[in-house]
């Protein structure tokens, strides 16, 4: 068979598409106008499908009949499939289970024929025809439609895995994802059975993940597996608003667990769990699974907790992921930690430690402010250090930008935690002034500690040399203008004494030429 769309092939496939639409319009119009009886309509559709299949086999044996036979066969099976959908949805001749079974058998027959003929166009034609026309008969994106399309996907899986037909993999996976997403939206807008929708959508998503995994194992070079994996969990994650909060959190957590297991297979040594699994499952696929698992876990966290605890939870998870990245030597895990830290920090700045708490005498941020401030500073230090250990921050200018942001967040986090801690005991202007004195002093002490440690570690010495001018700038620009007389005196005296002592200590350390802890 030649390649490309010849006029004869184009005419045959256009004719098949028009025929399918004609069958759909006939079935719908027959119901609206009362033409014939339901039995006559179903039998007529079955007869038309059988005639088209017989014509496909007859044409195939003739010269130049290959293209026409493909179009006739695909159209015939699609007509039979649509006839089954109509018998189930419109006329109630078949129960839902019976209709799904019959539809699976018919679609499987078409795909089996494509396998025997080694003809991907037949398989694609069967799947596309059924997937496009079934919603026109069904009328609404409900569980029945998702079930039919999921079984269509299931029927196509063995053939596409056997031959590595990428087009078939794409057209089989996409319709069920779209239908499941529309079913979620439809259930939110109507008074449908939400539990049934969640169960069907969850099953369809699990099927998509399994098929994507099998494709990745058997066809490591097939990038459609990654695309299918990314799309598969979307419907079930969008279905969480349909159930109560504990079940919604469990649903998202379940997705996270499944995807984490897939991601974790990359760390299983060869010969363990599954033979040579580490070599057979592509790294890109497991990386995508890990990223999706992080998103699902983030959603589970935000569903299960009140918004007041989001920043704390996300920053704690960022620290855990950072430790996990160091333990597993995985830069991808560190990227997940950075994502959690970014979102957690944004939420902290919005809710727990907003900037105005540092410049206005107002309500205390409470214990949560102390905890979130400390966590912000710890995360800002831990992630860049882990990046250095893993060798992903050795290239400027990205490393330089991250270190600058890290330094700003460390200063902000420590300042917010200090102010929140002081406000717990003295929530007035005196507490506000005391807090700023301690903030300035703590920044100076930290800068000196970095300078002393930086005698042997140049990066820490640079950090200390940057932090010290920042602390002095705050002392002369903010504290001098804001603090009252006595607080101003205390701030300057303590800062000066600390700097004097540090200068003596630093000079002695340099003369000894020995590291100082």
Automatic annotation (TrEMBL):
Q: Which Pfam family is an annotated match for this chain, by its short name?
A: DUF2339
Instruction: Work out whether the entry's keyword set contains Heme.
Output: no
What top-level branch of life does the organism fall under?
Answer: Bacteria
Q: List residues traversing the bilayer.
A: 12-32, 38-57, 69-90, 96-114, 143-161, 168-189, 195-218, 225-243, 249-269, 281-303, 309-328, 333-353, 365-390, 402-425, 431-452, 459-477, 489-507
KW Ubl conjugation (keyword) present: no
Q: Which PANTHER family match?
A: BLL2549 PROTEIN
Q: From the Swiss-Prot or TrEMBL record, give the protein name.
A: Predicted membrane protein
Biological source species: Actinopolyspora righensis
Q: What is the lineage of its organism?
A: Bacteria, Bacillati, Actinomycetota, Actinomycetes, Actinopolysporales
């Amino acid at each position: 068979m030649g390649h490309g769309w010849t006029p004869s092939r184009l005419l045959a496939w256009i004719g098949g598409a028009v025929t399918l639409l004609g069958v759909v319009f006939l079935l719908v119009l027959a119901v609206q106008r009362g033409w014939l009886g339901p039995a006559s309509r179903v039998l007529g559709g079955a007869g038309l499908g059988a005639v088209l299949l017989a014509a496909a086999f007859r044409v195939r044996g003739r010269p130049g009949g290959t293209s026409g036979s493909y179009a006739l066969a695909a159209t015939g099976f699609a007509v039979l499939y649509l006839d089954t959908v109509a018998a189930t949805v419109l006329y109630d001749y078949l129960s839902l289970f019976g209709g799904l079974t019959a539809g699976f058998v018919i679609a499987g027959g078409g795909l089996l024929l494509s396998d025997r003929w080694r003809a991907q166009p037949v398989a694609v034609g069967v799947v596309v025809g059924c997937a496009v026309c079934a919603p026109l008969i069904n009328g609404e994106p409900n569980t029945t439609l998702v079930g039919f399309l999921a079984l269509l996907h299931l029927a196509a899986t063995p053939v596409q895995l056997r031959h590595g037909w990428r087009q078939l993999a794409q057209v089989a996976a996409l319709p069920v994802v779209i239908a499941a997403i529309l079913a979620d939206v439809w259930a939110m807008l109507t008074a449908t059975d939400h539990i049934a929708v969640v169960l069907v959508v969850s099953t369809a998503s699990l099927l998509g993940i399994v098929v994507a995994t099998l494709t990745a194992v058997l066809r490591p070079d097939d990038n459609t597996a990654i695309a299918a994996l990314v799309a598969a969990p979307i419907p079930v994650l969008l279905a969480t608003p349909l159930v109560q909060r504990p079940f919604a959190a469990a649903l998202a957590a379940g997705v996270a667990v499944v995807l984490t297991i897939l991601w974790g297979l990359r760390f299983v040594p060869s010969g363990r769990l599954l033979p040579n699994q580490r070599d057979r499952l592509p790294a890109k696929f497991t990386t995508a699974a890990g990223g999706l698992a992080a998103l699902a876990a983030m959603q589970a966290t935000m569903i299960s907790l009140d918004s007041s605890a989001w920043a704390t939870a996300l920053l704690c998870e960022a620290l855990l992921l950072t430790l996990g990245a160091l333990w597993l030597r995985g830069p991808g895990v560190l990227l997940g930690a950075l994502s959690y830290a970014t979102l957690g920090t944004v939420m902290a700045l919005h809710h727990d430690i907003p900037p105005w708490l540092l410049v206005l005498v107002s309500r205390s941020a409470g214990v949560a402010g102390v905890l979130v401030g400390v966590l912000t500073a710890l995360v800002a230090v831990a992630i860049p250090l882990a990046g250095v250990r893993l060798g992903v921050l050795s290239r400027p200018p990205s490393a330089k930008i991250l270190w600058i942001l890290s330094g700003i967040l460390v200063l902000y986090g420590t300042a917010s935690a200090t102010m929140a801690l002081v406000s717990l005991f003295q929530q007035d202007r005196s507490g506000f002034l005391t807090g700023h004195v301690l903030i300035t002093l703590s920044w100076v002490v930290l800068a000196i500690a970095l300078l002393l440690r930086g005698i042997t570690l140049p990066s820490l010495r640079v950090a200390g040399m940057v932090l010290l001018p920042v602390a002095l700038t705050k002392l002369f620009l903010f504290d001098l203008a804001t603090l009252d007389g006595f607080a101003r005196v205390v701030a300057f005296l303590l800062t000066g004494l600390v700097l004097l002592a540090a200068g003596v200590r630093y000079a002695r350390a340099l003369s000894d030429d020995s590291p100082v802890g």
